[in-house]
């Protein structure tokens, strides 16, 4: 059937075609990793829907296409496609774990020497260890963080501390994970109009903090980040596009009075605590 997920005219075929256009022929090993990541992600996330109401498969496809268009290679694209498998994935009723995913990939990919490293990078992209919610309370005109214990903390600086830990974890995992996360941010921003007000505010603030961090990485000359010229080029392009989109999102939400006008003050807080 034309247009199915693994045919040349389907989403996977489009992703593969763009990567080949940018990088030339994809090695047999990298093609297997990309294909298996795509199929496995569809399988373990098929029980979910996005907060926007879309099937989760749209997120997988969008991230894959975004990374390919930015110039990411097959392995980075596979990483982005797989980024939520350990956080939200299930096989039947059983949650996907690092060991289960590693076992699956080793069986399907044979003696792929980088399988363990790949799964570790997927693990670094999982937000499971930072379970928190961030909501705006209109009645009190203030922000609140729901901590791991389910308590409310009306100190916005705590939010930046949580996000700082999140960015540090990604940064330490390397340029590949930052690039993969950037594609996730891009889709989150793209679909925000379909979210409920409290979710759109959370989406704005979480992703704005991540974009500020990417800007900081670039502004400091990628200091401390193990990145080659190709990865730096992608991060610069991605961060520029994300900056334009998040500014438009913030302007729109200010116009709709979904957020207070002084939200930009949090920029200062982030930089102060993010150094």
Describe this structure in words.
It is built from twelve helices and five strands. By secondary structure, it is mainly alpha-helical. It folds into two domains: 1-126, Hypothetical protein af1432 (Orthogonal Bundle), CATH 1.10.3210; 129-275, no CATH class. The strands form two sheets. The protein has a three-stranded antiparallel sheet. Strands 1-2 form a two-stranded antiparallel ribbon. β3 (133-137) and β4 form a beta hairpin. α1 packs parallel to α3, α3 packs antiparallel against α4 (74-81) and α7 packs across α9 (175-190).
Write the layout of secondary structure elements.
Elements: H1 11-23, H2 28-44, H3 57-70, H4 74-81, H5 85-88, E1 90-91, E2 94-95, H6 98-109, H7 115-125, E3 133-137, E4 142-146, E5 152-153, H8 156-173, H9 175-190, H10 197-219, H11 229-255, H12 265-274
Antiparallel strand pairs: 1-2, 3-4, 4-5
Helix pairs in contact: 1-3, 2-4, 3-4, 3-9, 4-9, 6-7, 7-9, 8-10, 8-12, 9-10, 9-11, 10-11, 10-12
